[in-house]
Design brief:
alpha/beta; 7-stranded mixed beta sheet; about 40% helix; 4-stranded mixed beta sheet; about 425 residues
Length: about 425
């Protein structure tokens, strides 16, 4: 017992050294990312592992924020990068591989989508989707959900201020300094997984161009959201509001057709990133043909590195590989995700530990409560204190398992069953301690 107490005090001391309290001006949401362990600098990565500058090996559950379906340095990606490098890295002109990639992606997605445009990041993809929606509908306002994440640009850096909100009516607050308060006039904040969201969409239908939603929220990655998304599709269509699926995370991770295929829902616009680039900066917006035709009618979509031929070549090789091996890849990802989730949850239930693992397929998160939750707000109100969670993730890193500051956990095909069992053992052992 004395060893455990001394260990806890040591961790608390490290946490206290890094826990900086900063006053948050004008009621803005504070995005706290300080962690209670020293910053780890990565030297290299291979397969399911990261290696620090001290040669410490970490099992990587970050995987480039979910970008690496096949793990680090997958042979198909490395080979494509070498070949593409010999052909040139930037043209700023139309090129064949861009056309081939556009066709390959559209062939993977539901066939109601008739056009695509490329950019470099998820943030750029949501910017472009919003611009297309406004041009197509002639309306300026957008709607996003509390607890969601759509990148780092001004129009979507809006979160919920809990002290002024209730469950069905989130009060918006800016999530960063440097953004004008007037931005909130262009954004409607909706309650996630709550029926009042439908009433709000109906109320503002004459102003709303698009509703953006993460089909599976990173802050609340649930697998029981299909009914809510189906209702959302129905209410947006009924009120002539576009529905945009932000699939920066779920695209190509839940399957070749992403969340649209997984949930059986057709969105008007879909944003792709992360996995589509195989670890290289590439993102895209795909949409219904009539919406994408707005690009021909004056909606600006240019950029020096947009549809970069080097990144497009790697993406094309990766997508062809995923298509060829679809059954094996996605069944493995789903089975390993289910194994990790079931193992952790069975252990926590048997030992009365108030923690559960949530997620969809290979996209997971530990929720530090055993109570039912509906939303990010619900999660924040019911979870164990942040101090406990930070101690947990700190020690998980010390034991060789790397997680991100946003605490989303990803698996790749490089994580075999034995490694998934090792991850589960490390998590359950630490929770029991």
């Amino acid at each position: 017992m004395s060893d455990r107490l001394s260990f806890t005090e040591e961790i608390k001391h490290r946490y206290a050294q890094h826990n900086v309290s900063v006053r948050n001006p004008k009621g803005r949401i504070r995005n706290e990312s300080f962690e209670p362990y020293s910053k780890i600098y990565v030297k290299s990565a291979h397969g399911p592992f990261l290696f620090g500058v001290d040669d410490q090996r970490y099992i990587d559950l970050v995987l480039g924020g979910g970008s690496l379906l096949l793990g680090h340095g997958a042979q198909v990606v490395v080979d494509a990068a070498r070949s593409a490098l010999e052909l040139g890295t930037i043209f700023v002109q139309p090129h064949l591989v861009g056309e081939q990639l556009a066709e390959a992606i559209l062939n993977c997605l539901p066939n109601h989508l008739g056009g695509i445009t490329f950019c470099n990041s998820g943030t750029e993809a949501t910017i472009r989707a919003i611009r297309l929606a406004r041009a197509f509908t002639g309306k300026d306002k957008i709607a996003i959900f509390s607890g969601g994440w759509h990148g780092s640009h001004d129009y979507v850096l809006i979160g919920e201020e809990y002290g002024k909100s209730n469950e069905g009516a989130p009060y918006p607050a800016l999530a960063s300094a440097g953004i004008p308060e007037s931005i909130k006039d262009f954004c409607l904040l909706l309650p996630y997984n709550h029926d009042s969201a439908f009433d709000m969409i109906e109320q503002y239908r004459d102003q709303l161009a698009i509703v953006l939603v993460e089909p599976v929220q990173g802050s609340n990655p649930r697998d029981d959201i299909a009914s809510f998304l189906t209702q959302l599709r129905s209410i947006t269509k009924k009120n002539s509001v576009l529905l945009g699926f932000d699939e920066i995370i779920t695209g190509f991770r839940l399957g070749l057709g992403g969340a649209q295929e997984h949930f059986g829902i057709d969105a008007d616009l879909v944003m792709l990133g992360k996995a589509v680039g195989g670890g290289f900066p590439l993102a895209a917006v795909a949409g219904r043909a009539k919406i994408m035709d707005m690009i021909k009618d004056g909606v600006f979509m240019g950029g020096t590195f947009s549809a970069n031929p080097f990144a497009c070549s790697i993406s094309l090789a990766l997508i062809r590989y995923l298509q060829k091996n679809e059954g094996d890849i996605y069944s493995l990802l789903e089975a390993n995700g289910r194994l990790l989730k079931d193992t952790v949850n069975s252990f926590c239930q048997a030992n009365s530990i108030p923690v559960r693992m949530w997620g969809t397929k290979s996209f997971l998160r530990l929720i530090f409560t055993d109570q039912p939750i509906k939303s990010r707000r619900d999660r924040d109100e019911k979870e164990l204190p942040q101090s406990i969670q930070k101690l947990f993730y700190s020690e998980l890193a010390n034991r060789g398992i790397m997680t991100s500051s946003n605490r989303i956990l990803f698996l790749s095909t490089a994580h075999d069953i034995a490694m998934v069992e090792e991850i589960a053992h490390s998590i359950t052992k630490l929770l029991s301690e």
